[in-house]
């Protein structure tokens, strides 16, 4: 096969895979670069974190997805810098790649807004490592509470704070409440499900701010019905091993989870072009970089403001996939010396699940909540899973969990799980809360594992 142009795609997420697959019939060689060997279905990542699914059920090897595409090759490597002048991508441990066209689809990373000390005590949820670590911390908190005889310490162990009221935060909070009520309460003897306290903290005026006020209020009511405490209009000022603080309020909690913000891939900073506050690259109507029509940015990496609108497109998977297919068409048109088209986003709606038989959906003018929205959410997520095997496994696991009130992925992994676990005690705690000599205190409520490097690309 004689291929005349070289297209380099950075990132194997929704956008990167979409552009690569759409170029399968083009007269180009496509090189897909990713530092992970798998494509991750991020909208279901919270289910791994809450022991509903196993990691392999929402991830599929990129090579298996593209094995039949003869003009595509995959490199397991990390792109460290883009040289626009030389038209090359520098890789960490491999020779640089020269390109005729470049598609940057590196996704996003967790954004702690300058607080470098928070990731270790409040993990985010962007990759499988994050999900497994969150699952570990949540399950260990229940295990520690089962052993604990001090009611104050047990109360702290059973308090979970989720920071961020977007789709990911709402899903995490709802899943923790469900895990305690339907699953763990039947397996433990010394703790009760009603002892579990879940607090959702949102800095804005309402949860799910990207949805209409009506749907946001329905979600709020569902959270209240599940016993989740919703705090809005408060920005967290401190997070440590014993809890969180905002304004003059402090909540003692063994487990704090971060779902409050994302930023574009750090690779964007190597372009030497102006970026927005989230590190996104402003792009032209055809998703290309101003002054460099051979470079495209899509998905979470791009700041695309539709014509006639003030708000940029959100960082969700439908945007990335549509932009990926669009960019592939523009590359094909450029090779044929045809003029490029402007990108027009087809908004197919927004979904968020809250818990068992609880979800909200906006599709055009249609507003759904409760069981109908939940069924719609199930169908959409099954449909967009890439691998048939994963679809089948997820359907089976969801059906089993729904009818049996069971979650089968409740595994605690690591080399130190046999240690005695006890939460850190605040400096101003009364003497009764201090650890006894026979039971050493733990530095954190849940054993600390250093966070892995953030991964690629949102929740629809």
Number of helices: 10
Q: Which strand order do you get reading across the main beta sheet?
A: 5-2-1-9-21-20
Straight-line distance between termini? 38 Å
Largest sheet: 6 strands, mixed
Tally of domains: 2
Helix/strand structural class: alpha/beta
CATH fold-level topology of the largest domain:
FAD/NAD(P)-binding domain
Rg, rounded, reads: 23 Å
Oligomer: single chain
Query: Which bin fits the share of residues in helices?
Result: 25-40%
Number of distinct beta strands: 25
| Content of β-strand | 15-25%
Could you explain the architecture of this structure?
With 460 residues, the chain is of the alpha/beta class. It folds into 2 domains: 5-111 and 262-335, FAD/NAD(P)-binding domain, CATH 3.50.50.60; 128-260 and 356-433, 3-Layer(bba) Sandwich (FAD/NAD(P)-binding domain). The protein contains 10 helices and 25 strands. The strands form 8 sheets. A 6-stranded mixed sheet has the order 5-2-1-9-21-20, covered by helices on one side. It has a 4-stranded parallel sheet with strand order 13-12-11-17. Helix 1 runs parallel beside helix 8 (317-335) and helix 4 runs antiparallel to helix 5 (151-157).
Provide a concise account of the structure shown.
This protein has helices at residues 14-22, 45-49, 62-65, 128-147, 151-157, 167-187, 213-225, 317-335, 371-384, 388-404, and strands at 5-10, 28-34, 38-40, 59-61, 72-76, 79-83, 88-91, 97-98, 101-104, 108-110, 159-163, 197-202, 229-232, 238-240, 243-246, 249-252, 255-258, 262-264, 281-282, 288-289, 292-297, 302-303, 350-355, 358-363, 366-369.
